Each structure stands twice: as C-alpha cells, then as structure tokens.
Hints:
The N and C termini lie far apart (69 Å). Residues 1-9 have low confidence and may be disordered. A hairpin with a 2-residue loop joins β1 (29-35) and β2 (38-43). It contains 21 helices and 27 strands. The strands form 6 sheets. It has an 8-stranded mixed β-sheet, sandwiched between helices. A 5-stranded mixed β-sheet has the order 12-13-14-15-16, with helices on both faces. Strands 17, 18, 20, 21 and 22 form a 5-stranded antiparallel β-sheet that branches. Among the domains are: 14-185 and 239-277, Rossmann fold (3-Layer(aba) Sandwich); 475-607, ANL, C-terminal domain (GMP Synthetase, Chain A, domain 3), CATH 3.30.300.30. It is of the alpha/beta class.
Amino acid sequence: xxMTQPRPVLTGTxxxxxFAQAARQPARVALRRKRxxxxxxxxxxxxxxxxxQVANALLSLGVQRGERVGLIGENRPEWLYADxxxxxxxxxxxxxxxxxxxEQTHYILEHAGCRVFIVENEEQLDKxxxxxxxxxxxEHIVVMDPEGLRTFxxxxxxxxxxxxxxxxDHARRHPPxxxxxxxxxxxxxxxxxxxxxxxxxxxxxxxxTHHNLVWTTEVLDKAxxxxxxxxxxxxxxxxxxxxxxxxxxxxxxxxxxxxxIENVDTVMQNFVEVRPSLVFGVPRIWEKIFSVVTLRxxxxxxxxxxxxxxxxxxxxxxxxxxxxRRPVPAWLSAASRLGDLLALRPLRHRLGLDRVRxxxxxxxxxxxxxxxxxxxxxxxxxxxxxxxxxxxxxSMHQGKAVKLGTVGHPIPGIEVRIAEDGxxxxxxxxxxxxxxxxxxxxxxxxxxxWLYSGDIGEFxxxxxxxxxxxxxxxxxxxxxxxxxxxxxxxxxxxxPYVNDAVAIGDRQRYIVALxxxxxxxxxxxxxxxxxxxxxxxxxxxxxxxxxxxxGEVAEVNKTLSSPxxxxxxxxxxxxxxxxxxxxxxxxxxxxxxIMEKHKDLIAELYRG
Length: 608
C-alpha cells in the first residue's frame, strides 16, 4: 500500500504523533496479526496508509470535528486503523466493550450522539440492527469482518472494503482535505470518549483530550523507559484506557511492535509464540497464570516438583531480602541463580515470559503476595494505579523504586494528596476536563482542579502510595471495626480454586463471602478424584468441592485479623457475567448488583 505523506501537523495531537512516527520508520514492523497459522507483518507505512483511508472515508460520510464515532470489536489491526482514523478527521472515538448488551450499546451510542458506528463482525452487527430504530441519529454502520455477511444487503450497512473504497475516492477527489482537517485539530480537543464501567449506575463518558494522552505517553517513559524494540501482546479490551495506552498511544510515541492475539482462547499460546518484552495484565490474568503453574507443578514427577520448589524457595528468600533492603548472602545469590537456570528459566520459557523486560498489573488491586511470587519467578512486576479520568496512571512502581503492598510514587509531573477523609486526589496535565453532557458528575469529581478518585489511601514514610479500598466499598461491622473488603477478596482469589469472591459485612457481626469457583481448575480437581458432575452448578453444589473451598478459606483466615476472618461462605451456583450486569467489562464485581441479586442467600448466611 502506498502512503501519501501528510503535511506536518502538530505533534501535540495523537494523529500528529502517529504520522510523525510512521514517517520516521516507514518500513519497520508496527503490527502483527496471525492468520491461518502464520504471523503477518504490517509496517508503519501500511498502518499509516490504512489510517488515512479510514479518515478520508469518514470525511466522505460528513464526520465533523468534535463528532463522536462508535467503535466496537476485539483486538485487531482494523480497530486501531479506525481509532486513529476517527481522531485524524477530528472526531472522537467512542469505544464500546464487545460484552456490552444491546441495551448498554444503545445507551452509549445515544448518549454520545453517534451518526457512524463501526462494528467488528456479524455478532456486533446484530446488536446494532436490533437497536437502530431507537437511534434516530445513527446513519451508517461499517462492518470490519464480513465473514458470514457476503450476501447481506442493507442501505445503512457497508462492509470494510466498501468503506475503504470511499476513503480512496475521497482522497482522489479532495487530496488536501484530510491534511487541512488535521491542521485544525488542537491539543485541547476531545480525542476519545471512554465510558466508565458503571459499577454504581449508568456509565459516564469521560472526555480525554489529545493533550491528556500525548502528555501521558511522554511521562510513562520517564517513569519506566519504553523501548522501540519492545514487543507487546494485545489481548485485553481496547475500550479500556489501560490497554489503549499500551496498544495504541504508547506505540505511537515510542514505535514498538504490537502483536494481536488470534482469539481469547489462544492467549497463553500466543504468549509463547510472541514472547513479549512488555506485558500488561489485570490481576485476574496474573492470578490465572499463578494457578496454572501451581496445578501443573503438582502434576509433574517428584524430581521436577522438588527442583521447582527448591528453586522458587531460594528465589523467594533472595527476593524478600532485596525488598527488605537487606544484603543477599553470596551463597543464596549463587544458589538462586542456579535454581533459576535449571528450573525457573525453562518454566518462564514455557509460559512465554522469558523475555519480559517489564510487566505491569493494573485495573484493580493485586495481592502483594502474588507480586512477590512473580518477582521470585523472575518476572519483574510493577503495579500501576489510576483511572480513566486521569488517562490511566496516577502512580506506579518506577525503576528500582518497587515496594510491595504499595502502588509506587506519583508519576512525574502530577500532584497527589490525601483528603481529610482519606480520599486520594490528583491534579496534573493527564486529568480529564470532565464528563460528556454531565455537569453534575463533573462538578462532583473535579473540584478546584483536583480529581476526586473515590479511592481511600495513604502515603507511607517513604512517599509510596498505599490503596486501602474504594471509598464506597469500605464498611463497618456492628462491632465498629472498619473493613476493606478488597484486601480479604484478594486473599481468597489467590487460591487456584477461587475465581472471584465478594466479602460482605456492613453493620453485621461477622464477615461472610460469596465465592465463584475457578471452573477449569476445580473441574480437573474433581475429575482426578472421579467425582460425578455434569454442569457447573453440579460442581459448585458438590459437598467435596465445598470441603475443598472450606480448606482454602481456612488457610486465608490464618492470615487475617479476627474481625476480618470469613466466618461463613456460599459458593454461587452460577458464574458472574458482564452481559448480565454481575461484573464490569473489565471484570470488576458490581457489588451492589451482586448483593441485591443474592440478598436471600446472604440473609441465610447470617441466619445460620
């Protein structure tokens, strides 16, 4: 694909950064995707050419500067072409999670006022067709993947190739139009409109400007260097600000390569194939890797098990001393290096984590014990704390300044302070200007330039930020004890047999928990013991499975103070689904929804 070189544009905008990067290294690999068993390369020149086609196509559809364009789909190059193309024509990308129901999709498209909606495939097209009669502003639906739709005809719908042809025709008829539009874009213009998870009500549209995003890409490199030779595997939802930063905005600034998973079922296989150097994951991913390793080790012969436990034990001892800032004895250093060479390095290779230069966990709190495990395994893990409203990061572990149990220091260039009630406040160039069409929510969140995070935290004596819990989630038992449920829940989720947990106890005399078992691991455990079951519900109701979880809860209780201990629990007979409103698209539990849905079960736990 031949790319027409754009005229110079301000690098204070996302399109400006993008085209400047493409002009610097046109032949370098920007993206990779796997098709029919082969990884295909996409150069920066090809990437830029596709973006220009998308932007021109949107101009031909009459998209105006500041207009919002809807976008829904899994991780794939076309998502990025659309995202940057929307911004290049002066629009604002409005990403929607693929797990969103038709009603949730309708709410966002209507609230954002989208005239154009770009969807991935037949499944997402069906949602759009179901709700379009209630969206009077919607005029065009573009489908990225036409599989199963070759003979489909609808005056509102066009396939990707037809859409790109519009862009080619527009560029041929109006050569300077796109460059002229890009020259009009200002750093303070809206670049993306990201709808928050909606754990406490309808999602709110957070406006992020070009300046917010460009500034953040520069600062993240100051916190932990980003290298042009880095490789990233893109697998988490691109509608979320964190994956968007790592898969879209940071590569635009620093030029590293983004690899796309084939589908959600091949993530671990793709990790092994790509062996990324830069890894981002939410706690659920790291918990899953830990549980997979733990169970696989149990299946090995006695010699391999002994080698692993000896190696990881030595590495744990060395890591604990380093984090305590105590010298590591020469014998321990030598022994842990030998254990790493013989047992841990081959394990990292099998997991696809042997080339990791830096790994991040973000999106929700993660157990310090889990972070320590990955450091012992040889994966340098850092935690990021932040939210959509400040473009992703507020604080993070930076360089060698890693202290487990904290979320590091504030990123360079922003101010963070703790309010009288313990709420974390942030102020800086990454803080958003407000919520779209919601002045009341904006006024409640932004006060005198400070972003009120809704999180409770504190600074320790070394300036590290520690998160206690979400302000709205903290509760007080009937004995007057303040409880942070996420701390208890993270302890429970560290078990390979627990997928999720909700701790409850507001104004009650003790703590109870609702637990969702890890289906894959508990299924294998049950099969090894020849336990009869046919469905997930059968498995969850099995007395032996309850005894298994009871043992896991008892182990967790040993690490908790008496008021924090889980006195009773129930195993939910059904998984939690984003589509049913149990969890957000980023897998954070909607606590109020779960408590309302299972109020009778909770009442039973307290009646016992």
